[in-house]
Amino acid sequence: MNILILGSGGRESAFAWKLAQSPKCSQIFIAPGNAGTGQYGTNVNIGVNDFEGIKQCVLSNGINLVLVGPEEPLVRGVHDFFLADERLKNIPVIGPQAEGAQLEGSKDFSKQFMTRHNIPAAASQTFTADTLQEGLAYLPTIGLPIVLKADGLAAGKGVLICASLAEAQQELKEMLTEAKFGAASAKVVVEQFLQGIELSVFVLTDGNNYKILPSAKDYKRIGEGDTGLNTGGMGSVSPVPFADAEFIKKVEDRVIIPTVEGLKSEGIPYKGFIFIGLMNCGGDPYMIEYNCRMGDPETESVLPRIESDFVELLLGVAEGNLNEKELIISNKVAATVVCVAGGYPGEYLKNKAITGMENVRGSHVFQAGTTQQGDDVLATGGRVLAITSLQDNMFDALQQATADASRIYYDGCYFRKDIGFDLI
Ligand code: AMP
Ligand code: GLY
Predict the structure, then answer these.
(1) Which ligand neighbours the alpha carbon of 233 most closely?
(2) 3-state secondary structure at position 270
(3) 123-192: what fold?
(4) Pocket perturbation via mutation, ligand 2, pick of 218, 340, 366, 416 by most ligand atoms within 8 A of CB
(5) What's the confidence (pLDDT) of residue 64?
(6) Is pTM, for the whole model, over 0.90?
(7) Taking the domain 2-85, which CATH number applies?
């Protein structure tokens, strides 16, 4: 079968790499892809939100299945677009319709969903410009620090953790009355801060059955020791040592089953990934957020640990028989170190030639923000490469991925040398 992957990051490189290993897969197309995805298939120069362009690509290349990488096309209804089109409606899309994608597209929707289904989460309330005064009155009641979340998609920047009441008051006003995050902050969720260790649990569902994929931990801050600005993600490890079978059972009982059953009982169709962002608070899971897709760079650590045919699993989602599919997870440990552009997550250097990828020894390089120019691969995005190593134990995986990251050079290349070492 022919598969189209939407997206252009390290996550999509990892999907393409994994799908290309399946005997079921004939051709892979990636829209728009990056310089690395060309190793596994054909890049097509179409944006992820260009639904008409995607339609033409699907029809002209005999695509049998579409896998959506990022959230934006899902929230904008790419799956609904397929279902509404006579010629596309029988081509399965992996990723929920717009209604289910609200789990990520609206923090208010997702908090209300958690409340309706008794899913453990931080206490919160939602406010608009009209209820600003109530919001200001609520702030001092939930302790410090105070978490403010823009309701809509804000490219990962819409969450503020305010150390003082004065800061929270100021930010809440700016979000609601000065559109600090544009339309995304027309509503703001004010939330209690959860103390604990963060991790991500991934679920694949056909809307009825589900499989729990390997869990992962993501490192979000730019600086070593988890300092400095937030990024898209500087590295990841899987499995997460503190998420043992007992903890995952709690997540299954308290979060996963109520989520899948809740979607079903509300008549919300959902075929795709559910990314469950959790805080482990003293051994108990509390929800931070849902995403309607896989994480990046978590996918780069999760997929290498899946030994089963990934195309089979996606077909199980498409056909509604995921329960009949096998999910074999390796006991090995995967570590991913992300090389970013100099200056990221602020203004960053662009179009720098990358060398040394051929020197990587015990890792796989998943390209992200790269572009091919003649014989050169140029670093064009903030997150440039994800270096993943799969080894028998965590120390070896971390050491190998970090050593291999240091074999790569481009002007301004930066990576954290401490990814995962806190877990040892
Ligand atoms: P989100 O965009 O929802 O993933 O939030 C971004 C980051 O903010 C999360 O990955 C957490 O590190 C942090 N965060 C969000 N909500 C909370 C919370 N209630 N308590 C503590 N940290 C939080
Ligand atoms: N690494 C976090 C995310 O994909 O949202």
Answers:
(1) 2
(2) coil
(3) Dna Ligase; domain 1 (3.30.1490)
(4) 218
(5) 98
(6) yes
(7) 3.40.50.20
